[in-house]
Amino acid sequence: MKEGESVMVLKVFFPQCCNRAASGLLVGRWFPEHNSAVVLAVIHYPFIPSHVKRYIQQMAAESHVELSVLGSWSLPQEGEEGMDSFLKDLSTMFPQQRWLQISRRMGQKGFTCHLLGRTPPPKEVKKTEEEVEEESEEEEEKVIFVHYEQRKVMLSQLHPVQNGVPESKAALPSELRQVFHTVSSSGPLFFLDKYDDGPLKSTHWQSDGREGSIIVELLKQASVPLCVLLSRILAVWTWICSMRVFDVFPLPFLWSKFSSCVQLSYRTQHLKTLSSPKSAENHTQFIRKANMFVSILMDVGLGLLLASWLYRDDHISMISNMLVPAADHVAKELQDLLQWLMGAPAGLKMNRALDQVLGRFFLYHIHLWINYVQLLSPFMESILWYGGLSACLGLTFALSLLSDMVALLTFHIYCFYVYGARLYCLKIYGLSSLWRLFRGKKWNVLRQRVDSCSYDLDQLFLGTLLFTILLFLLPTTALYYLVFALLRLVIILFQGVIHLSVDFINSFPLYAIGLRVCRPYRLAEGVRFRVLSEEPGTALHLLMEINPLKSSAVVDTYRTPTYSCYPKDSWGALAKKLFVGELIYPWRHTSTKSHAAKTD
Hints:
The chain is of the alpha/beta class. It has helices spanning 49-63, 83-89, 129-141, 150-155, 175-185, 214-241, 251-257, 259-275, 283-310, 315-341, 352-376, 380-388, 395-409, 411-438, 457-507, 510-518, 551-558, 571-580, and strands spanning 10-15, 24-31, 36-44, 68-74, 98-103, 112-117, 143-148, 157-158, 202-203, 441-444, 449-452, 523-533, 540-548.
C-alpha cells in the first residue's frame, strides 16, 4: 500500500454465541455509511441456497430489517478439510458488494478474515506469492472484530449520553445505535432453534431453546379478560363522574381541593392507561407503563397491610378514643395562648382595646370549634371505621384522606390565620400608601407605577392621623398574625410531608430501578471496549461491554409525571408573602409536572 493512502477499517460485530458454531453462512446486516457489519446468526451446512434466500426474505419482511448473507463462517471439523473452498464458491450464489470469509482453527482464539470484493480490478496483473501474502496481511489488518453478547444487546435499550445536548433528528443514527436497533428488531430471526424440524439449522442466542416462562405466558393470557373488565368498570366510573350533578357549584371547587379526590382521579388515569389496548409506542413509554403497574401493586399492597393493622386488635377504637381528647387539648392550648396574648406577652406593651377585641373574637371561634368537635365525637369511630376501608384503594389514598382530615380538624387555625393575615395585610398596604402620600407620590393603577402627586393641607393632615393610628396598632396585629402564621406553617409542613410521600409512591420508577439493580444491561448508557485477542496473523478482537445507566439518570428519565404538590414560589417569594401578609395556600394544583424524559 502506498504512503499517504487512508486505510479503511471494517468493523464486524460478532456474537459470542457463534464463536463455536458449525460451518455455514453468516446472516446479518451491512452498514455502508459506517463501513461495518453486524452478524446475527450462522446458518449451518448442509443447506439449499434457495431455501436460505427465501428464509432471509421472510425474516426481513417480518422484522423490517435489511437482512442479507454477509459471507461464510468456517470452523472445520474432522473430514471437512475442503469446507473453506466450498463456502467461498457460494459467494456467486448470494450477490453482495462484499463477501466476508471468516475462518477459525480449533485451539486458536483469533479469526482469519478475508474480504472479497465484487468489483474486479481494472487491469489483471500477475502477482508473486510474496505480494499476495502482503496483500492478505494488509487485508486482515483492515478488519476488527467486536464481540458482543447477543442476549444482552437484544434486551437492552441504548440511551443518549446525559450531556444536556439533544441529538439532531436529521443526522444519521450512530453506529452503535444502529447495531442495537438491528439486534433488538431481529426477534423473528431468533425463533429458529435446534428443536425445529425445518430444512435450516442456525446458531444464535436462542438456538438451544427459546427463553420463556409458563407463569409469564399464563399471566399474559389472564391479563386480557382482566383488562376488559377493568375498562368496563372505569367506563362506568367515568360516566358517573361526568354527571351534571357534580358540575354544580361549589362541588367542582371542593373536589379540586380535597387531596383524596385528586388522588382518586390520578389513579383512574393510570388505570385507563394500563387497560388501554393501545401498545406503547417506544421503550420509554413501555417502562413507564410498567412503573405505573408496579406502583399500583405496591400502593395497594401497602394499603392492605395498613387496613389489616387498623382492623386488628381494635386499633380504630384506640385511635378514636385518642383523637377527641387530642382535639380538646389543642383547643385548650389555643385558649391559653390567647389568654397570654391578651395580657402582656413577653413583656410587650400592646394596645389593650384592640388586644381585647381580637382575643375575644378568637376565643369565641374556639368555643364554636369545641362544640363542633363534641358534636362529632359520637360518630368519630364510625367515620374512622369507614375511612379505614379506603386503605384498600391504596396507601396513597389513605394518606390523602389523612391530609384532608387534618385540614378539616385544623380548620379553625386556618380561619385564625386568614383573619390575622387580612388585618395585617390591610395595615401594611395602608402604611405603604400613606408613606407615599408624605413623599408626594401615589400609585397609578392604570400604568402600574408610582407617579408624583400634589396634596393639599387637609389631605396631609388626615394622612398623618391615619398613619399614626395604623402604626401604633400594627404591633398588636403583627403579634397575632405571627403566632397564627407559625401555627399554620406547622400544619402546612405536616401536610407537605404527607403530600411528598404520596408523590414519591406515585412517581418513583420502581420497575426501572429494579431493572437497574437486577439486570443493569437492560438500561444502557453506552459501551466500553477491551482487547480480547491480538494474536499475530489474525485480526484484532475487541469485547464490547455495556455501561449501565446511572441510577439518578434512571429516576430522571423514567419518573412518572404527577400532579404538582410542591410550592411554585421560591423561598424569597414565600418570605415576601409572609412579610406583607399575603395568604399562603397549601392546596395542590392539578397541573402536571413536566419531567424531561430523555428519549431517543
